[in-house]
Structures are given as structure tokens and as C-alpha cells.
Recover the amino acids of this structure.
């Protein structure tokens, strides 16, 4: 006893997209179905059926969609899921760097000394332009600002801005230390 299962629309769609639909014969009543919008109607007396034109048009539309020509996205106020998050962060860059210490990265400045002024401390830095700069807690460089100056340990702690969407904190602490003459010559 042979049992025949009805064909589901999902199965037929899968067969059609894989190219197996080209081997399925088209019945006369399916060939007379309404053509797809934009498809050219069959010429009378040309010997071609409207069904084969419809199939060709659908195949062309599928190829256009897969190549990206036939797809549009309406965000409706939401973020576009096809755009990179990292590119969005890079496009919001600060622009051209300002002159002086405000335009230098933390890695481009060297701690030269720490000076006490009243009850607070001032750090003396040598910039990448070979000039000296005095900075206090709260002063900023291009990618961060000074959080703490510790004269006893001879260190300055910067809070560096991090533009990594995978990181838990949007910052990291970078410590610059004083080097002695013996350490610097090694």
C-alpha cells in the first residue's frame, strides 16, 4: 500500500529555490495564472506559456535579491542590523587633533617629574613635540584625562577612553611612572 503525502507550500518553495522547479511540469491552469507584477505577458501565438515567463521572472527577482539589488531596509527609527557597530563608533571620531598637549595621545607623552604646589601636585610631561607641559588632576589629553597624581610612588594615572563595544567599561586606567637616570639608560 503506497501512501501519497500532500505537498506543503514550504517544500514546494524549497524545491523551487534550489532549481528543482525547472523539472516539474507546469499544468495548463497554472500557466494561465496571473503574471507577476512587472513580468511581460506571453505573446499570443509565440508558442511560449505564461508560466515559463513567470518562472523566469521569479528566478530573476530571486537573483536580484540575493545580489543585493532588490533589497531595501526601512529602519523605522531602529538601528540598521546590517551595519557594523565598530564603523558607527569610528564615524563619531573627535575630528582633527588640536595643537599642543590636548592633541597628544597618552602613549605619546612621557612623565618627567612631579611637583608639589600647595596641597596638590602637578605633573611635568614631555610631549611628542619635544616641549614641556604641566598638568593637574582633571586636565585632558586627546584620548583621556588625569585621574590621580601620586608623588610617593612617582606615578600618574590616566583614564583612557576606549571605543570598544565588547568591553564592559568604556575606559581603562593607564599608569605612567617616573624613570630614574639608571633605568632610562638601560
Amino acid at each position: 500500500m503506497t501512501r501519497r503525502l500532500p505537498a506543503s507550500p514550504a517544500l514546494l518553495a524549497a524545491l523551487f529555490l534550489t532549481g528543482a522547479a525547472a523539472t516539474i511540469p507546469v499544468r495548463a491552469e497554472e500557466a494561465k495564472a496571473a503574471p507577476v507584477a512587472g513580468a511581460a505577458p506571453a505573446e499570443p501565438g509565440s508558442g511560449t506559456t505564461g508560466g515559463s515567463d513567470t518562472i523566469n521572472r521569479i528566478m530573476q527577482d530571486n537573483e536580484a535579491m540575493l545580489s543585493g539589488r532588490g533589497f531595501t531596509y526601512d529602519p523605522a527609527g531602529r538601528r540598521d542590523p546590517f551595519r557594523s557597530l565598530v564603523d558607527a563608533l569610528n564615524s563619531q571620531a573627535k575630528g582633527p587633533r588640536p595643537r599642543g598637549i590636548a592633541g597628544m595621545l597618552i602613549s605619546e607623552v612621557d612623565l618627567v617629574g612631579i611637583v608639589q604646589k600647595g596641597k596638590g601636585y602637578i605633573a611635568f610631561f614631555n610631549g611628542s613635540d619635544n616641549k614641556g607641559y604641566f598638568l593637574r588632576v582633571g586636565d585632558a589629553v586627546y584620548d583621556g584625562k588625569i585621574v590621580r597624581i601620586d608623588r610617593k610612588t612617582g606615578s600618574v594615572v590616566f583614564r583612557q577612553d576606549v571605543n570598544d563595544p565588547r568591553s564592559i567599561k568604556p575606559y581603562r586606567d593607564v599608569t605612567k611612572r617616573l624613570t630614574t637616570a639608571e633605568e632610562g639608560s638601560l
